[in-house]
Amino acid sequence: MTEFATSPVAAAVEPKTVPPFAVIAGAQVQQVLQGREKQIVELVEQTYRVHAAGDSVNPPSYFLRFPDRPTSRIIALPASIGGQVDVDGIKWVSSFPDNVASGIPRASAVLILNDRATGYPFACMESSIISASRTAASAAAAADWLSRGRGRPRRIGFFGVGLIARYIHTFLNATDWSFDEIGVFDLSGESAEGFKGYLERSGTRARVTVHDGPEQLIRSSDLVVFATVASRPHVSDTTWFAHNPLVLHVSLRDLAPEILLASTNILDDVDHCLKAGTSAHLAEQMVGHRDFVDGTLADVMEGKVSPSDDRPIVFSPFGLGVLDLAVGKYVYDELASSGQLRVVEDFFSELRRYG
């Protein structure tokens, strides 16, 4: 008995400490992230590299759908990321498009961060801003890397002009992009005019045009941003893309498979993008293979893939949970270092195994 009690296995056990639990409000998240767009783009790029190197766990997202509310959904994105971030967690994000008619945002989200040593959650934070920021940073990174062989576009078009479009414009502007022309199209004329007003207030020197239809927008743009809530493809004419634009297909389900099959396709993660009825998934089902996928953004950053300039380039990011964790942990660390964390004392009712 004595020998067993002093065995190497027992001696190797080290005491663990449960971290304090903090709640981080949206105002604090915005305070940390505002004006740090360049740092967030760099963080997202590094996270893509860590993920591509295999130091992450990013299982498929889980979609909670409702028979009585078919347009609505809530998605769970569990993930774990190593590297310097070194955290586990999950994002719980809802999309209720009918909210817009009531004057409230379509999406809402929370992010839970878990301690890797104990598994205990140590933060719950408002995450719609984190989600929008990591999405916009991903788009800005893709726009940069995918235009390096063809020159930066001077004409940009936004197809769908909600929160994500606004954040993408903010991140492009903050990472030294400038445009001569900015096109706007949305099924809601009121939203299109509202976005035009936002652009003019942002101080842009570009000429801003609200287009009557999608064809005119696409044909007149060298960089096209799709940020809609479309659940199935609605753009199918390949001739609209004959000028070989760079397309940030952020909303994933706008383009018919024929357009992807006629383009260079860069994804953020192949397995994740080729599911859940995305345009890339439909293209795979149509042709029965994945040969139309040229690689990932990490492949481009590592020099493994060099997109050509003789066809459209389409970037389709599924939106990886590891990105939310990286940005969320950045926010947490900044608040912790400045002493601004709002810790909930006694959040865990019992921290002794035997009471």
From TrEMBL:
Q: Which domain of life is it from?
A: Bacteria
Q: Which Pfam families match?
A: OCD_Mu_crystall
The protein's name in its UniProt record: 2,3-diaminopropionate biosynthesis protein SbnB
Q: Which organism is it from?
A: Arthrobacter hankyongi
